[in-house]
Amino acid sequence: MVAVILLYIAFSGGGGEEAPLYETVAVERGNLQAYVGATGTVRARQSATLLWQTNGIIDSVNAQIGDEVKQDDVLASLLKSSLNQSVILAEADLIAAQKDLENLLTSNTALLEAEQAVDDAEEAYQKAYNWRVELNGKIDIKEYIKDQYGNIRLKEYKGYASEETIEQADRDLALAESRLNDARREYERLLKGEDSAEVAAAKARVEAAQATLNQAYLIAPFDGTVTQTQLIAGDQVNAGDVGFRIDDLSRLLVDVQVSEVDINNVEVGQTAELTFDAILNQTYHGKVVQVGQSGETVQGVVSFTVTVELSDADELVKPGMTTAVNIIVEEVQDVLLIPNRAVRLVDDQRVIYILDENNQPLQIKVQLGASSDSFSVLASGDIKEGDLIILNPPSQNGGPFGGG
To answer: Which residues on neighbouring strands pair with residue 245, listed in sequence order?
Structure first.
């Protein structure tokens, strides 16, 4: 606590007039926290409103307000007989798509057949290639002829292939090469397994069927707490009706608007103090986790969004509550502190008044450092610890701190 002294001083003038009553305080050393203040609204780190995607009658409700749920938990479902035909048939489509996908992922028959096809194609290509090479030189020609007695004999001799024979060999070789390339591509495709186009298509069919089937359910998209619901089994719902709201209360955030004058003093990692009108006599703490880099102009004032995460929130703090946030932008220790209400501006120079040894006001020029709402750090000036600073100096000696 800073002790404030009321000092009554009498003038020594002959008129017997009395001097004004000065309110003084002794200069002390202490610690100071400079902060940027703003207000904001508490929000959950993650929030989702779950809507029904189809019409139907509620069959079961598995969660109520306050329940903690896990990702993919089924929170409510519709009666199957109340669903439209496309949703009902999606169950059969899902089973068939899952079976096709399983066959693609687990069966080796297609891969083994493709491997054998490559071997056969390579053998056929090699034969066609060898025959075409052979046609480039003399080849063995076999011919059956009749002798003078009418007997058929085999005649063999060396000769050159005809143009027609070579053209046919070229076509056979090109066809064998094309078949070999096709066999290799098919084999390489099957080798990809889960990365193949067929598997991707099968997965897409599974996901499409599952998405259609999921219209009959409300499923938690992440771990969180149910904060809103009014569902009752037997109720009729329509597509677009709200089923649940889920909030991740493990991390609570506050977005505040900081003016362009103060934004460059705010950094990620700085601590903050938060108070709530709804929670009396309780101060919470937090940390700056994000500083906006683009300002918005509202009614001529430029401000930036700064996000603060609460570090010690309890069950009393709820999303939607309004809070006052003080972001500590500077903290100094063991410094001389000057009350802001004692500072005046004289000829554009900050001054304060102290009582001299004759109990008279004495003007002292000062330079100030970091400031809070109540105090500023004395950066320079002929002031020492224990000096009595006048909090209400004569008005004729200059305007108040921040005035002219």
So the answer is: 49, 228
CB 7 within 8 A of CB 392: no
For residue 61, the SS3 value is: strand
Which CATH code, of 2.40.420.20, 2.60.120.260, 3.40.440.10, 3.40.190.10, is assigned to 4-35+333-400? 2.40.420.20
Q: Is the pTM of this model over 0.85?
A: no
Residue type, 135: L
pLDDT in tens, the chain (404 residues): 444 444 444 334 444 455 558 899 999 999 988 888 899 999 999 999 999 999 999 999 999 999 999 999 999 999 988 988 888 888 778 888 888 777 767 667 777 787 888 889 899 999 989 888 888 876 666 666 676 777 777 666 566 777 888 889 889 999 999 998 998 888 777 776 666 677 778 788 888 888 888 899 999 999 999 999 999 999 999 999 999 999 999 999 999 999 898 899 899 999 999 999 999 999 999 999 999 999 999 888 899 999 999 999 999 999 999 999 999 988 889 999 999 999 999 888 999 999 988 888 999 999 988 777 788 889 899 999 999 999 988 765 444 444 33
As a whole number of angstroms, the distance between CA 75 and CA 60 comes to 8
Q: How far is CA 297 from CA 18, 303, 306, in A?
A: 54, 6, 15
Residue 298 CA neighbour count, 13 Å, CB half: 9
Structure tokens at 138: 């003399």
